[in-house]
Input
Amino acid sequence: MFQGGYQGRYLRIDLSQGKVKIEKLNEEVARKYWGGRGWGGYLLLKELGNKIDPFSPENKIFFLTGPLQGTLTPYSPKFVIITKSPLTGTFTRAVCGGQWAPELKFAGYDGIIIEGRSQKPTYILVDDEKVEIRNAIHLWGKTTSETEKLIKEELKDKTLRVISIGIAGEKKVRFASIIHESRAAARGGTGAVMGSKNLKAIAVRGTGPIGVADLSLFKNLLVEAYKAIKSDPAYLSRINTGPRARWQ
Output
């Protein structure tokens, strides 16, 4: 049984059927294939054949986190997007930073698996235990910044974390990215795969905690990590001095 880091469950969303399932994360798999990249490689081999068309409903997109997202571990908010690439015809991994992954963990999920294809433009809302597939016709043709703004206005919450595609993704440009705020998951055409599924965005809001197995040990390791960071000669030139700087 998971004692910290992992939430122990993930979402499987079938856009063709309009169905949402919560599935348990296998602890043996999580320990053997560590983090989002390892878990994603396992899922690719288990669930995707090598002859499927990247733009077909049979392709899947895996949005995956690891055990450190949502904790105070430095440099750890990134999530992994894994799918079959329309650009290369093989499997691809794209990585994106920002606060979307921690927010997904706060909502209680380690990842999201997207299957099938919606008949019309949609976006997904994950709001703790409430998960909805919502109409996105009014968002189709919008840029990613416009999409994020409109979703936050629609749901009356500026704190929502949103990933989305722009017009390139909608038109299935084979190198289209998925955007989160000012960050891009920019490898392999992951945005084009989202567009092929008529999936415009995934908005997340979470209010739950993230546990760690040994809090005392974790705090001691954080102290060591931050000391190592501050001892780096490039530390002062690279540190963020804006309002997000919390670790000085």
Summary: Residues 241-248 have pLDDT under 50 and may be disordered. The chain has two domains: 9-205, 214-248. Residues 100 and 161 are 5 Å apart (CA to CA). Residues 215-231 form the longest helix (17 residues).
